[in-house]
Automatic annotation (TrEMBL):
It comes from Neglectibacter timonensis. Keywords: DNA-binding, Transcription, Transcription regulation. Signal peptide: none annotated. Residues 9-77 form the HTH gntR-type domain. PROSITE patterns: HTH_GNTR (PS50949). Pfam families: GntR. InterPro entries: Tscrpt_reg_HTH_GntR, WH-like_DNA-bd_sf, WH_DNA-bd_sf. This is GntR family transcriptional regulator.
């Protein structure tokens, strides 16, 4: 995971997104422990409160949970929950806009499907 200090995205959001990516890619399997707040703050040279805020985003979504005295762990079913969340986000942020533009350009449903197929082949 990398933190871009020049990005417009807040650091805490980058931490949450990076952890989501790591969970989805299997770096942190369900039931496994994630790095501590201290580890994040030392590794990325950030304020511990910033790291905590990023992790708390995932706690609020029930992606990770705290075991008192042991640390933070990935919730069972977290990967599927993240996939569904990101699929919905993908639809809202990309597919809707693509379909609207296709309609403006008078691209038919069949033409759009063919273009998508071509994209998967390339």
């Amino acid at each position: 995971m990398q933190i871009d200090f020049d990005s417009e995205r807040p650091i805490f959001q980058q931490i949450a997104d990076g952890l989501e990516d790591a969970i989805l890619s299997g770096v942190f399997p369900e039931g496994s422990q994630i790095p501590s707040i201290t580890e994040f703050s030392v590794t990325y040279k950030i304020n511990p409160a910033t790291a905590l805020k990023g992790i708390n985003l995932l706690v609020d979504e029930n992606i990770v949970y705290k075991k008192r005295g042991l640390g933070m762990f990935v919730t069972e079913g977290a990967a599927e929950k993240l996939r569904q969340k990101r699929k919905e986000s993908f639809y809202e942020n990309f597919i809707k806009a693509m379909v609207e533009e296709a309609k403006r350009l008078e691209i038919s449903r069949e033409e759009l499907k063919a273009m998508m197929e071509r994209g998967f082949e390339g």
